[in-house]
Design a protein that fits this description.
Keywords: Membrane, Transmembrane, Transmembrane helix. Helix 1 runs antiparallel to helix 2. The longest helix has about 35 residues. The chain is mainly alpha-helical. The chain contains 2 helices and no strands. The protein has one domain.
Length: about 80
């Protein structure tokens, strides 16, 4: 699959925000695991960390589509 152009320059913001939020959930999960010793808690937070990165990526891709459609309307 070909890489799309980053016309609106949101890729860096998307990746940075996704990494920060995912890392936050992972840190909370590890801290909770160290405190409680419950591996289910750690697993739950790690799953949420992965999902949060995916959700942030999805939201930014939708924002890119919205900006593309606004660009097309503005050109008319």
């Amino acid at each position: 699959m070909m890489e799309q152009q980053d016309k609106h320059r949101t890729r860096k913001i998307r990746n940075l925000l996704g990494i920060i939020v995912s890392a936050l959930f992972a840190v909370v999960g590890v801290a909770g695991f160290q405190r409680t010793g419950d591996p289910k808690l750690l697993l739950a937070f790690l799953v949420v960390a992965v999902l949060s990165f995916g959700i942030i990526s999805l939201v930014f891709r939708l924002v890119d589509r919205l900006l593309d459609s606004l660009d097309k309307q503005h050109r008319k």
